[in-house]
Design goal:
Layout (H helix, E strand, L loop, with lengths): L2 H5 L4 E8 L2 E4 L2 E4 H6 L3 H4 L9 E5 L2 E10 L3
Antiparallel strand pairs: 1-5, 2-3, 4-5
Length: about 70
Amino acid sequence: MNAALRADPAAMRVNLTVPSTAVRLRPFALDGLMSLLGVDLDEVLASPMIGPKSQRPVHGGFVDVYPLGVEAG
C-alpha cells in the first residue's frame, strides 16, 4: 500500500472492482486471472493501492475491490 498517496488530499480515489475468478477447493485454489496474467493482480496494483483488498458479495458471486489512488496532476 502506498501511504504517501493515501495521505494526499488531492489524490483521486477509485474502487476498482474485478470479478473474483478464484476457485477454492479446501487445500487448493485456482485463479484464472492470475493464470492469464502470470502474476497476482495484488502485485500489479500494489503501487497505487491506498488500502487493503476486500471482497463484496454481488448477485450470487463475489467481486474483489481494490481501493486505488491516482496522483493529482
